[in-house]
């Protein structure tokens, strides 16, 4: 066997061994205060571009190597990183995310005192429509054509 074939065979064996070592981890992500399940949580395998999100009930299933870390993140919650070494295969991983402590101090809502019709594009458009409404009626036309559109899924 030639040297190039041996190198190719070695690379294929290494890649196959690396991918076959990945295991499926399942779990549930909940809010640490309310205990509610959290849908749409981003789960990323640390150091890679691979990941997943939780389903509507907060459940997830992800393939990763036991020596990798998972990063759980979502807007409004502190990110959490876990090591898969701590979780034996077949055991469900329960993750509790803590909400961030950002609080708004004060919100002020004020009403605008006056409404200006001047230089308002919406008002100008409505005025043009009303001015041309008789010209655009079907009864005033000698003929008209209608195109039908069907969306195919």
Q: Sketch the major β-sheet.
A: 4 strands, antiparallel
* Rg: 30 Å
Helix/strand order, N-terminal first: HEEEEEEEH
* Class per helix and strand makeup: alpha+beta
- Strand order across the largest sheet: 3-2-5-6
Principal-axes geometry comes out as elongated
Number of helices: 2
- Give the percentage of residues in beta strands: 25-35%
What distance separates the N and C termini? 53 Å
Poorly predicted regions are: none
Beta strands, count: 7
What fraction, in percent, of the residue positions are helical? Answer: 10-25%
Average pLDDT, rounded to a whole number, is 82
Describe this protein's structure.
This protein is an alpha+beta fold and 153 residues long. The protein has two helices and seven strands; from the N terminus they run αβββββββα. The chain has helices at 3-20, 121-131; strands at 23-31, 42-45, 51-53, 59-64, 69-74, 77-83, 93-97. The strands form two sheets. Strands 3-2-5-6 form a four-stranded antiparallel β-sheet, with no helix packed on it. A three-stranded mixed β-sheet has the order 4-1-7, with no helix packed on it. β5 (69-74) and β6 form a beta hairpin. It is elongated and about 80 Å long. The two termini are 53 Å apart. The model has no long low-confidence stretch (mean pLDDT 82).
């Amino acid at each position: 066997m030639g040297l190039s074939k041996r190198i190719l065979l070695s690379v294929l064996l290494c890649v196959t061994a690396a991918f076959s070592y990945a295991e499926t981890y399942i779990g549930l992500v909940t809010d640490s205060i309310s205990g509610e399940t959290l849908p749409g949580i981003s789960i990323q395998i640390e150091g890679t571009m691979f990941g997943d999100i939780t389903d509507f009930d907060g459940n997830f299933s992800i393939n990763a190597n036991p020596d990798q870390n998972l990063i759980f993140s979502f807007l409004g919650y502190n990110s959490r990183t876990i090591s898969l070494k701590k979780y034996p295969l077949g055991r469900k991983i329960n993750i509790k995310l803590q909400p961030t402590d950002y609080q708004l101090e004060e919100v002020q809502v004020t009403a605008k005192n006056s409404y200006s019709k001047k230089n308002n594009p919406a008002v100008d458009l409505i005025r043009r429509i009303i001015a041309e409404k008789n010209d655009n009626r079907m009864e005033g036309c000698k003929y008209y054509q209608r195109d039908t559109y069907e969306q195919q899924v």
